[in-house]
Write a structure and sequence with these properties.
The protein has 250 residues and is of the alpha/beta class. It is built from 8 helices and 10 strands. Helix 3 links the parallel strand 4 and strand 5. Helix 1 packs across helix 8 and helix 2 crosses helix 3. The longest helix has 20 residues. The chain is globular, with a radius of gyration of 18 Å.
């Protein structure tokens, strides 16, 4: 979905919003819509899209993988550049969406800014986190919770498939091993105090001209309760993201 800037003249960077996957996609859908509108009102061209096999996009839910999703981000970058006439691009992502933004930026030379909201730093740890989330969810919601239901080589995590291929892709991710330029300017938005995020923040300082950090206490509780209240939106976080992107594009 393409959002035109509501202020004229438009600001000089197009925004591409990169979703997380699975249950986190559902939790963030309303927040991403709100974020897109906030960016539009601040004068930005904005593109919000679904990866192949996710949301309203084409493909089966079991067909998505990291390689395809990175291609989708590249396609989105080209689309917003063509539609807006701008050369500058800003990627914004939450959790796996933030991680994919880093990987996409490392493969291109036209990403100027990246906002990383609670990024996944280590894919193997992330997969284990998903499995733990499924255990807790299943114990509360299923009569026979089990560990994680398996179907045709896929694990089902809270109702979303985790294929062997996707699991393998995720487990290869380690942001500390990236050595290519990511973007000129990077902003971390963190709702907790994860030690791995602190380490990768310092690592990315070698690969970017500017790395900023914004910790927003209490926002972790919103993420945990998002599944119970889909109308809730973390306004403080969204406003901080828009403010940072506006400032670096002033």
């Amino acid at each position: 979905i393409y959002y035109l800037p509501q202020n004229h003249p438009a600001r000089g960077s197009g925004i591409v919003l990169c979703y997380p996957m699975g249950q986190e996609y559902m939790w963030m859908h309303r927040a991403y819509r709100q974020l897109a509108m906030l960016f539009s009102r601040a004068g930005f061209h904005v593109l919000r899209f679904d990866y192949y096999g996710c949301g309203d996009s084409g493909g089966d839910t079991e067909e998505g993988d990291v390689t395809q999703w990175l291609e989708d981000i590249s396609t989105a970058i080209e689309e917003i550049k063509d539609s807006s006439g701008l050369d500058s691009v800003t990627l914004v992502g939450f959790r796996l969406g933030a991680t994919l933004s880093v990987l996409a930026g490392s493969q291109r030379n036209d990403v100027d800014n990246v906002v990383l909201w609670d990024p996944v730093v280590n894919g193997r740890s992330y997969v284990e986190e998903l499995l733990q989330m499924h255990r807790a969810w299943a114990e509360n919601n299923l009569p026979d919770p089990g560990y994680a239901s398996e179907n045709n080589g896929s694990l089902e995590i809270m109702g979303f498939p985790l294929t062997n291929r996707l699991r393998g892709d995720l487990e290869k991710i380690n942001l500390l091993k990236i050595e290519q330029r990511i973007a000129d300017q990077v902003c971390f938005v963190e709702s907790g105090k994860a030690s791995d995020v602190s380490v990768v923040r310092h690592h990315l300082k070698k690969l970017s001209n500017r790395v900023d950090y914004n910790h927003i206490p209490g926002s972790k509780e919103w993420i945990r309760s998002a599944g119970l209240n889909p109308l809730a939106v973390p306004n403080q976080i969204l406003q901080s993201i828009v403010s940072w992107v506006t400032e670096v594009n002033a």
